[in-house]
Records
---
Amino acid sequence: MSHAFRFLVDAYETERLKTLSVWSQFADADMEFRPESRARTPHEHMVHQCASEETWMKSMLGIELARPALPVPETRLGFLEVYAAASTERRDRLARCPESWFGESARFFGVERSPGSSCAA
């Protein structure tokens, strides 16, 4: 991929690696730790990240994966494996999109945004 939107794929790569790095720092015993009453536990955060990223990528970018968003069972290692595989596949699909795809539009949260059509099948 060598076009003006390469930085988006690079930014996603950086974010997915940071997420995996932070998640790998938790021990199994930390999964239900709540540092503050309004904060998510690591387990709740992992569910949120996996489910919301899957929804956003499918709704906004048309990148739908043939894999579940959440591991079964929902263990720390399971989340690491599922998120690593899913985010790698999403990154690879984004990297294959032609420059023209990034300028297309789609409805997202009731507003026209780009890109629209899925190039990442």
Note: The radius of gyration is 16 Å.
---
Amino acid sequence: MPVPIDRARALLRRLQAPQVTNLFAQAHAKSVLQEVREAPANFPRFTPDLDDRATFAAYAVLAAGCSLIERGERAEGAVEVERAASRLQSVHGVHAAASRESGFHALIASMAFYAAGL
């Protein structure tokens, strides 16, 4: 069931806080390092439980975006759905073939990209 538009927008504002955007930046950086097969010993100190935290935050963005779409705010919601898909892809894409859990999150990301019109 979609949440009211004002609550969805309030959630999205909270998810733009510096500490949350930093989580997504770290997740993206980690993804790049994994893609180029950098040794984990050379990674910077990422936030503990980074993948889980970024995944949960991405799903919150996805839920808010879907609520906006379901409440008639298609353009605004599609931007958020695409943003959530990118974040899920950033965290789980590199592991999708090897991990059933990451494969699931990558599937959700692909459906979100499709729903956003990409």
Note: The CA atoms of residues 38 and 46 lie 14 Å apart.
---
Amino acid sequence: MRQIRTALGDLRGHRNFIKSAQVPPCDYFLTDPPFILEFDESQHFSRPRLVALHNYPENTPIGFSISRWRDFCREIDARDDEPFDRDERRAWYDTLRDLVPTIHGFRPTVRVHAEEFPWCSLDADSAHGLERFWTLLQGRLPDRIR
């Protein structure tokens, strides 16, 4: 974590981007098995996020394709400079959501690119909508979650 924090600070010189001792809420938490599900919109694919991903430990269980996320970061190259260190903050909190849960016994955080599918078109109140959601998600889940 220290290596990632240093790399983020070195990127643009913004070293005081950690503003809270608590991680902002995750998008979704599923209980059985326990894991976090994050829907990443384009603002999550920035240069600071690319730097963070390049510094992830090699043997850490991850619930998404790091190489694909790196490609998205290069392609989208999102920039959000309000406030000036917003990209570093977002990259840091995404990193915490990715790396910390497994330390506490959760399965790896699963990430989906929000633009891959019209996720909001699914009806969470219907059995068909939930079945469709899990079917779509299965291809993105690591074997240890399925």
Note: The chain is about 40% helix and 10% strand.
---
Amino acid sequence: MPGNEGDERLRQEFNEWAMAGHGPQMERHHLNIAEQTIRRMALKPGERVLDLGCGTGWASRIVARLVATGPAGFGQVVGLDISDEMIARAREASRDFENLLFVWGSAEKIPWEENYFDKVLSIEAFYYYPDQERVISELFRVMAPRGRLYILINLYRDSPYGVRWAERLKVPVHIRSAQEYEEMLKRHTFEEVETCLIPDETPTPDDYKSELFTAEEMRELRRMGALLISARKPNFRTPPRGMEVY
């Protein structure tokens, strides 16, 4: 069981989200930008993929279909989430998948071996992690040499609408700029670090109602897009925990 105070706060919050049935709502809200990001990942059959902050596993299932059996072998997807209730729902909805595994655990101490994943996807989760630097270190550890990382977030400093939404959350979040995220990944020796905006092509009806946004504000938020941060791990094999590189 994840043990630090920050993890426990997130577990409790997202367990409440799961029990309130927010999983399908999260999928509807993020499906368009997620599909655009997954296309950019250029997934191939046989690849190993980590879905970090997988929630109810809707994106994991999309990815699992794309990396399934092919000439390169049998691809695998691992979904990791801090919420045991989310993981339970992900497992229930994914019983027909033979190449999909869901794990309850902390992003700050990923329960997986070194140099394993060819690709990492994280959708609308990264700003929740209390120690983002530690999470980046863990991702570096579990990624294969030359593996690629894709972090997609709607909450970033350059978006005034996302910042407004953050004020309503019950847990602390990080609000960083695209430049700050680029610098963070470069500090951890990631290569080919890039950021771009992924506009949300989901139509906004004229009768859209929200406590936070008008219909026109929602259209503008979607036009502005989510921030996609991508990077590549160098051609370097991370040593097992407890070993040092000299």
Note: The longest helix spans residues 23-41.
